[in-house]
From TrEMBL:
Keyword field contains Oxidoreductase: yes
Its EC number(s): 1.4.4.2
Any one GO molecular-function label of the UniProt entry: glycine binding
Name used for this protein in its record: Glycine dehydrogenase (decarboxylating)
Protein family according to the UniProt entry: Belongs to the GcvP family.
Pfam families the record matches: GcvP2_C, GDC-P
Function comment: The glycine cleavage system catalyzes the degradation of glycine. The P protein binds the alpha-amino group of glycine through its pyridoxal phosphate cofactor; CO(2) is released and the remaining methylamine moiety is then transferred to the lipoamide cofactor of the H protein.
Amino acid sequence: MAREDPDRRRADRDPGPRRLRRTHRRRRVTGAAPRIAAFADRHIGTDAAAQRRMLDVLGYDSVDALVRTAVPAGIQVHERPTSDIPAAASEAEALAELRELAGRNRPGRPMIGLGYYDTLTPSVIARNVLENPSWYTAYTPYQPEISQGRLEALINFQTMVADLTGLATANASMLDEATAVVEGMLLVRRATRSASNVFLVDADALPQTKALLRHRAAAVGIELREVDFAAGAVEPVEAFGAFLQYPGASGRVWDPSATIEAVHGQGGLVVVAADLLALALLRSPGSLGADVAVGTTQRFGVPLGFGGPHAGYLAVRSGLERQLPGRLVGVSQDAAGHPAYRLSLQTREQHIRREKATSNICTAQVLLAVMAAMYAVYHGADGLRAIAADVARKAEVLADALRGYELPLVADAFFDTIRVSVPGRAEDVVHRARERGYQLLWVDEATVGVSVDETTTAADLAAVAAAFGLPETGDRRIEYAGAEPVRAVPAALRRDDAYLTHPVFSSHRSETAMMRYLTQLADRDYALDRGMIPLGSCTMKLNAATEMAAVSWPEFSRVHPFAPEEDVRGYLVLIEQLERWLAEVTGYDAVSLQPNAGSQGELAGLLAIRGYHRANGDLDRVVCLIPSSAHGTNAASAVLAGMRVVVVACDEAGNVDLGDLREKIAAHADELAALMITYPSTHGVYEHDVLEITQAVHDAGGQVYVDGANLNALLGYARFGDLGGDVSHLNLHKTFAIPHGGGGPGVGPVAAKAHLAPHLPSHPFSQRADHAGGVFDGGPISAAPHGSAGILPISWAYVRMMGTEGLRDATAAAVLGANYIAARLRDHFPVLYAGEGGLVAHECILDLRPLREKTGITVDDVAKRLVDYGFHAPTMSFPVAGTLMVEPTESEDIGELDRFVEAMIAIHAEAHAVAAGEWPADDNPLTNAPHTAESVVAGEWTHPYSREVAVYPVRSLVRTKYWPPVRRIDQAYGDRNLVCACPPPEAFA
């Protein structure tokens, strides 16, 4: 985590980057570096000539003058005399520096286990999903008509998880295993009738999960009791639920069915965390009586990535599906009656229920869930069973060899993990293994853990055995034939039911078929590789190929999150540099990269505030003030942090109502914990009273949380820490160029002032003391010490290639683009909110309610008609119902901006044509949108408008047309008729 002294580190930890910083500072002084690096020119879509055209429309002499008019003068910052961010590097230079950092990592052969395993990603999936912008630049499928490929992939994921867990319904992924366990705990708490606040936790659970449970349970008043379930113990008190690990962290495999029955007998429900690959051989949690199953799909072809991103999973028995957190993909039908996928039930429920929300999860791990699902499609049931059996046999062979040398095991029944008793020798064994290039788990002075996976070879087994003292040659060397039956899994727990029986898991086995299937799915989607996605509050900007390059390098991708410090020095330097850079641009003193989503960053920040107040003895400070316009996760996060939400009104201009704020502060002065405020506001304007707002909260003893969702409108011009912010989360998947991946991954770092730094996330397995819980006592917020570290090279490269000037210019270009669109569309669609000089920030809200009143055309009609014009719709009805929030970002060129403006003007004219009676109100291009190819080709055309008007409303589409695969989807039908697994092939006949 970044500290106040940026040069605190010892020279032997970071020799290279120090030299780099000094070199770049000299270049800046001598003027050798250009003002804007070549990369920034390519990242920012509008060049000088285009910006001049746009400024002429707005009446400003320069982009800087425009932004400095919009941003209140009292909060503006100017260039710092010195900076920890070096001058912008070229793409080649940045890649060379990343190569140097990668070279400091020593991936070795990770055999630590604890929920993380090396895996083999089929090349066809790596090339056509992970490295394919059609998949990684897509957005969350809130417009389902243009997200059918992604949604089908996710319903494959849900089917895979439901089949393997033996439960009725699975959601479309969770953030990781440990947070999925927390969500499972919260789910059973609200689903059970028990009045108890006790939750039983398996003593053999993963240690990172237990640490996360302790941190999260304390905030919501849940009492945890650890129980050695494998020893047959069941707590003789009423509990609302219990959590079991299957197999255990120790590798032990045991039959939990009696324990589950006992918990049920006391009125509780049971959550089981299950290894998904083990379930190819072991009886499913559902068959054992579990109510909820959770876990990770990481070992299904998703690289380790030093801890993430990985797709967690959560599945429930019948009757609990409406309690599911996160996203759920279901089957509905389109306007022609054809099957079509869409998000179901509690989609974005935190926006609807706000402080009554049961989860703050606002994202998933879609890209990684797609990879895991396609791993199952690629291998099928037989392939998964063969991989699982092979892994189990490798563990058995190693176990037999060790027992042959009188090295006892902690458990004789296991799947892929063994723990070996070596009294007094554990450290030596782990050291000897590391000398051979293998990372084992040092459990304690007397015990060493070893986990095998699909990548483990006979040579690996021999090397590990040698580390325990077995001879490397001779009659007793390790031999692995790979054909013996599995013996270490008890017969009573061996799986005998079928799974993955849907044809999708057996129809794409050849490389050709798999490649074509992935391409067909991608073709059904709309992503940034097709055109602009102008979503307000979401910042869909360029994800440059150079930024993405290092993600696939094995020195970054095949690293275990609990690897020893000496093996991950490159990662730690990259993390420290990125933390320091983010601290500088936000005006904070400390940064944690651990939260693996924006919602988790929010929660981490609020938990830090909670910890700070409790450390000061202010136990009654539990009220969190939140403006009525706030993002829905704000209220949900506050509740999960143990706070009580009090809503603050907004005025007609969209600003926080100062009078109402002061009244609420006075009414709750002794209870005030925090204010959550988004800056620029959720309405897309720079509030001029922000300093007065934050000071009023501080005067009352509260802390200020500044939501970082809109940082792309501020970077280089103002800093959260200077606004009076005490803590903020940042969205690396928005401002700092990490792709949205079709709805995830995300990274939501939390940044704070020094007084809150001790309460930021810690982790029991962190490689550095300042992240491990000694200095930082906040407890973990994610399963891995550094969250989704595998994608941090993207943001590192973005900042490194942009430099401070490039970051500022990106903000200016984004603000210019939003104001240009607002100015050109204001005469057709009122711009709902504006600040100084009638200017907006990086996004504008177009009010479509007057259009509906005059023409009957709704915001939904406009959004779907935009598809016919080749666009993804802006954000609909947030933060105001009946509006579109438009954010063009800095990456789009003026041609794309003009194309969008012209489409909106044309749609405005079409709506008025309906009002004038040229087309019937129930049969026109807008209410029938979007139009598929089938709809204009098949059968007789009976509509009062032409086929050309339907699908080619502008001539430029003739050669570049995106064809939606389905017509408008019936949302309500899908909720009334809930189907959340792969429909049979005949449904699409």
